[in-house]
């Protein structure tokens, strides 16, 4: 039903989720010539947390989150997004604790009054949230070894990818 409404352009549909990017590279395997080695710098420490709201048409609203992700910070992102919508909007979320806390649930009526409605996916079904594909693509395909050289280069690369998503970067 929701997708049918979206297809008719009656609503804006968004898939929402958070992701964490750090200098511990996400490289599950690689190929190189026999006898050669490739070193990728890795470091613990600062990370970049992002909350994103992505439409099936590849429109992305992204928020950088300083520090740890918690309900208060996600509420702040949702408030900012709700203030920008121009038509009825449905945001599809998973059941993470930041989305199901009492603090978060207290905001739902306020968002609905603004035309922003939430739909929660069944538990343990990240495969139904298409923004998960974006996070995986960024980590495994878009980031290059040079992006891990410092926190600044990592943040710059992720910010650039998020800014150019929908044009230069797609899933």
Uncertain regions spanning at least 5 consecutive residues = none
Give the DSSP E fraction (strand runs of 2 or more residues): 15-25%
Per DSSP, the total helix count is 7
Which bin fits the share of residues in helices?
25-40%
Shape from CA axes?
elongated
Radius of gyration: 18 Å
Order of H and E elements: HEEEHEHHHEHH
Mean pLDDT: 87
User: Separation of termini?
Assistant: 24 Å
Q: What about the largest sheet?
A: 5 strands, mixed
The order of strands across the largest sheet is: 3-2-1-4-5
Q: Could you tell me the number of beta strands?
A: 5
What features would you highlight for this structure?
single chain; alpha/beta; 7 helices; 5 strands
Concise summary:
This protein has 171 residues and is an alpha/beta fold. Helices cover 35% and strands 20% of the residues. The protein contains 7 helices and 5 strands.
Q: Your description of this structure?
A:
The chain is 35% helix and 20% strand. By secondary structure, it is of the alpha/beta class. A hairpin with a 5-residue loop joins strand 2 and strand 3. The radius of gyration is 18 Å and the shape is elongated.
């Amino acid at each position: 039903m929701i997708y049918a409404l979206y297809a008719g352009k009656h609503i804006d549909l968004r898939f929402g989720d958070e992701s964490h990017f750090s200098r511990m590279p996400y490289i599950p395997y690689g190929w190189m010539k026999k006898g050669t080695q490739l070193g990728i710098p890795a470091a613990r420490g600062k990370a970049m947390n992002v909350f994103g709201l992505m439409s099936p048409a590849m429109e992305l609203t992204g928020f950088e989150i300083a520090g740890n992700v918690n309900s208060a910070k996600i509420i702040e992102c949702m408030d900012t997004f709700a203030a920008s919508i121009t038509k009825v909007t449905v945001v599809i979320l998973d059941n993470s604790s930041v989305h199901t806390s009492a603090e978060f649930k207290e905001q739902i009526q306020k968002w609905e009054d603004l035309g922003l409605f939430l739909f929660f996916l069944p538990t343990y079904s990240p495969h139904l949230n298409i923004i998960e594909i974006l996070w995986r693509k960024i980590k495994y395909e878009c980031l290059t070894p040079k992006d891990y050289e410092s926190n600044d280069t990592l943040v710059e690369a992720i910010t650039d990818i998020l800014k150019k998503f929908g044009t230069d970067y797609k899933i």
